Amino acid sequence: MAGGASGSLRRGRRRFGLLAALLACGGLLLAGWFAGFLWFVGKLPGEVAEPLRRTDAIVVLTGGSGRVRRGLDLLADKRAAKLFVSGVYRGVDVAELLRVSQRAPEELSCCVALGHEAETTHGNAIETARWVRDNGFTSLRLVTAAYHMPRSMLEFRRLMPGVEIVPHPVFPEHVKQNDWWRWPGSTYLLLGEYTKYLVAVVRVAVTPVPADSDS
């Protein structure tokens, strides 16, 4: 009986040790993930670094408030000669986009192009790279939300290494970037974007660059 009790005790200790090791590893991974999240939030742009710089084109990624209107403002201010809006709903044309944005069609319609194929940030980069290549552009100003900029720049730089990309962040009012921990909605959004960013980093690291990307 004593031997059986001793064996059970040893097995119990081994199981406890294994569980403790797994918990410790999980804790380290969680701590690393959260430290990375704090780094990610801290690196988000807080202002437009080069607001007056001119580029060949302006590219707007749909999906958030204020992006298209800001892109049209930049085009009207002659920050570039052309504007490309990526990820537009199928069936929406330039005239409709300008009407919704409260712009007169005759003012800017000649200089706006739309992309209807993209449904993800990776898709935005693919269809923008094709448009940039077809037009022979070598620089662009990228307009998207500040929290979305790191992932967008990662995707765009990968597919357009020979193109100079100037980030132009937009700051949606509903995203409390500076004190996100006080706002559950902002916390949830930033955590989700950080996770998507990590997934994009891994995918970029393990998949080859498409053969038809800019070089």
UniProtKB/TrEMBL annotation:
This is YdcF family protein. Gene3D superfamilies: HUPs. The keyword Glycoprotein does not apply. It comes from the Bacteria. The chain crosses the membrane at residues 16-41. InterPro entries: DUF218, Rossmann-like_a/b/a_fold. Pfam families: DUF218 (PF02698). Keywords: Membrane, Transmembrane, Transmembrane helix. Residues 56-194 form the DUF218 domain.
